[in-house]
């Protein structure tokens, strides 16, 4: 997709001193330290002199790939031995001749932290080459011999600072094993990379895409009937050995000293590297910046922010349909343009006009680049987004929504060499050609189901290896296919062209005549591929399997799906749709009531069920069975507790009246009469169950229980007046007084929480994956026996911060969203930084600065987790009581462990049992385990609901015996023990005794739950605690087991 400049939304933030300082600091981290650069420069100079002065008596046939073994050097193209034996040359003998030229370039423009510091370019003398050595693999074979000889020479001398000499895959992406370089490294960062080339073996015109320089029979004997085929990719590989060193030197020469431009280039490279766009990083990015510099789009006189914006805009508006050049002075014939456009999806030619700098890039690479750029472009200049944009690395497995792993071996592709093996030089190349072909066909087959896809090679294939070792064999390779999906991801139909057309015939041919005719509502009759009767997450895998097996002729077991459908952990969406529908009906009914003294003006749903952030376990619908009915109400019986029936909280407001008075208890009683009147009207006119109580009204609407609460602003004013009178009387510590505590509690329950919930509800409508992710997060916390460790609203705020992170593409799947939640938990520095969640997107930079400044001032008195929101500028309202530092540390540790499991599931050879890893509870660490009686587990009961049967009685509302048990246990034993449980599967409760209570001084105040050890010490009376648990839990607890009897996992 080509993005026009006016489509790139950029809120032009002004340049600030703070942003300039951030750029300067980042540049200091990027550049190589001067003393370190001097060290590697000295190494490079000594290497150059050693190579020039070397006298080596070496003579061998260039086809002899075993010769260097006697010199303690292994020939790097040993895997190409068969193909090399099929080559010819007019200069058959290889001897050592000093290089024609050796140049060194200290890279200060393109390098990133830890990169090679200095490059040495060695020009191989012409005497070693015949007139047609550019054909087949002759040039590569002789180049490898020259590299071996240089390695042999350098191994024989001692160069200070160099500890290892290795071969390294060549090319900008460091993945070309046919043209390896030498790498010299030591203990410190950086190193010296030595590349080899000969620019005189042929003119650049010889490597045009239409010309064949590698005969198929050289690599595959079965293709000996094919004399010459165009080899555009191989041609570019050969040209890269000649032109890339020159390009890097040109970038270094023209941009060195242009500090602003170099700084912007360094930041752009850091951005690309952090996003995993390493194939665009380095020389390609440098080439784009050089192009802008030459055209005057960026200059040294511009501010760093202006230069960055121009670079980002250039990348975001990159027209890949155009054949571009680095210099306006390069004039291309139209025929040459057409050749490159037909051979490569993206073309950016160097100054010679023949080497395509981007020959390895795909359309998906640029699509992903543009998507990332467009998200970050508006944030340039934002000092609070600097780390997100340029510094923080996003793991590969957190950037996409779905993943598949594909295993390919060159032996599987032998039957396809005639179709894909005409431009390949080895097994690695053959697999590369297949993956390019597969990616094109997969993109075509998947249609509009994804925004972009990338293919990444995984495994232990080293890019560098010691010179005394053989190069890695690349006969078997594994790839991870990553998708950024759209709303069409689960579409069960692939709609083709209208029937009886030439396009329809091509569509049938592509799908191997497996299509069906379908008639649509607009009377069109089209060819279609039908994957399922309804939308299903299995559709994409079916398509990939079809492409792999039927179109690409590969076995089906070559591919495995690596994204587990985490939505399985969430409740069915239909239940939340039922809540929304019932709430809308109830709201309309309440607003239209006419027989009340004061009319109802506002109806607000203040419940996680409305925004789909709470699991409906076992069901959102009211229980129709269980317990016994007494006076029109269902109540628990001694033999049976009904399953859990949740209630949806609704806040309503009445029209203004000045007759409520000033007494809170009187207002409360008067409000009760409103509940009675509303209930009476609903029962008589709507024929629905409505039960009033002193403080709320329960209504069953469409089988769902609603808890309606009237919120009075008058109560707030009365409470504020009480506090004000107390303050005027000269009282101190008002916040800790009874009046202050009542006011704070009322504000939190009826002002802060409702406002925050309404903001989150608005957020959930614009982020469809939000509710599902919150449910998954809660299920994960529960499975780790941490239910209650975080306030429900804190859980939602953490998810909101992860889902809507500035400068990062929003996730489109529950998998991606949950991974980001875990990353936020594990990587955020909770000690030194608050979590800022601007749900309303209303904060200015000045406000953020003030909030962070206040946090620093108050940090000593704030809890371990601080979550600042629009309604809680201090950030402690919902984290003051929990989590404790110990619990937060455990949550962070579990998040890191789960992330490792999810990463292994994608990249390991065999998939992981993700469900088991996420939901497995470990009881081995606990001192005791409380087993819960089955009849008290109200969240795991059968959720059968007869929707045709109208509810006639009010069920038991929000009663979970295990929740009550945990509350009771904490009230009685919290100073000596901690209790851990899973809210959604409460079959067991873990008990952990506090280690600091194991042995205490013998004092009268410490006697509770302790027994005497001696006259001076008391020890924890664990038997008493366990016995107390059994007594308090009578009817709920079936057994209490000590740790010695526990199994490791449950």
TrEMBL record:
GO terms for molecular function: RNA binding. It is found in: Chromosome; Nucleus, Nucleolus. GO terms for cellular component: chromosome; CURI complex; small-subunit processome; UTP-C complex. It holds the Pfam family Nrap_D4. The keyword Nucleus applies. The keyword Metal-binding does not apply. GO terms for biological process: rRNA processing; tRNA export from nucleus. Residues 119-246, 263-392, 397-551, 568-765, 769-916, 925-1040 form the Nrap protein domain. It comes from the Eukaryota. Keywords: Chromosome, Nucleus, RNA-binding. Part of the small subunit (SSU) processome, composed of more than 70 proteins and the RNA chaperone small nucleolar RNA (snoRNA) U3. Part of the small subunit (SSU) processome, first precursor of the small eukaryotic ribosomal subunit. During the assembly of the SSU processome in the nucleolus, many ribosome biogenesis factors, an RNA chaperone and ribosomal proteins associate with the nascent pre-rRNA and work in concert to generate RNA folding, modifications, rearrangements and cleavage as well as targeted degradation of pre-ribosomal RNA by the RNA exosome. Belongs to the NRAP family. This is Nucleolar protein 6. The lineage of its organism: Eukaryota, Metazoa, Ecdysozoa, Nematoda, Chromadorea.
